[in-house]
Amino acid sequence: MKLTVVGYWHGYPEKGEATSGYLLEQDQFKLLLDCGSGVLSNVQHYCQITDLDAIVLSHYHHDHQTDIGTFQYARIINKGMGTNMKEATIYGHRDDPKAFAKLEYQNVVNSQEYNDQSSLTIGPFTFTFKKTQHPVPCYAMKIKSQDKTIVYTADSSYFSELADFAKEADLLIAECSGYETDQVSQYGHMNSRDVGLLANQAQPAQLLLSHLPHKGDHKQLQSEVAKQFFGVTLLARAGLTFNL
Ligand SMILES: [Zn+2]
Ligand SMILES: [Zn+2]
């Protein structure tokens, strides 16, 4: 499977960029993990909006789902223009029924619920979910395809079961919302020290730091993580691609 970073900013996008969004592809199947602000504009560097088969939302905070409305409008406008489109489904949890109810749209976007009790097949991918520690219900995801595994923490403060869930992934996408002295766990986020601990326990083949703060030099996050995790650690940037 191929993963491309579309957006990686915490909270709001910097100029011309996007908050959380990752394009996952295999065998012509195209899926977005989260769909934050700026994702729909920026994903068009890599594919057509109408080629997206699915979007899987970790939670309903703006920086992870703002562009859902944009996606719905793009679908209805393209339908009106007679564009040849695949079916599209948005997957979300139903812990917030009102937010879930807004995913489906006018026969151009379907919705489907996921939960942490059972795995879910989406195209060529098998998803399992783990509820995180965050101010609103949020789910980390483990995605398997053939013999490869990606784990995405989504938004969460550190807890040891998250490290168990992430064990031995080929790629661990970890949110890293602050430097080691930033107190972010009270807001349901991890700083670089928390991510170092998580990765030390999970031992992924590659670690990707994402959901990055709007300050400082992000290279410092890498060196802070490296105090506890000695494996490959990369910083998210738009267009960064992993072929697993
Ligand atoms: Zn959040
Ligand atoms: Zn977030």
UniProtKB/TrEMBL annotation:
Key words of the record: Hydrolase, Zinc
InterPro entries tied to this protein: Metallo-B-lactamas (IPR001279), RibonucZ/Hydroxyglut_hydro (IPR036866)
Record flagged with keyword Metal-binding: no
Keyword set includes NAD: no
Domain of life, per lineage: Bacteria
Coiled-coil portions: none
Transmembrane residue ranges: none
Sequence ranges assigned to domain Metallo-beta-lactamase in this UniProt record: 18-211
GO terms of molecular function: 3'-tRNA processing endoribonuclease activity
Pfam families in alphabetical order: Lactamase_B_2 (PF12706)
Protein name: Metal-dependent hydrolase
Lineage: Bacteria, Bacillati, Bacillota, Bacilli, Bacillales
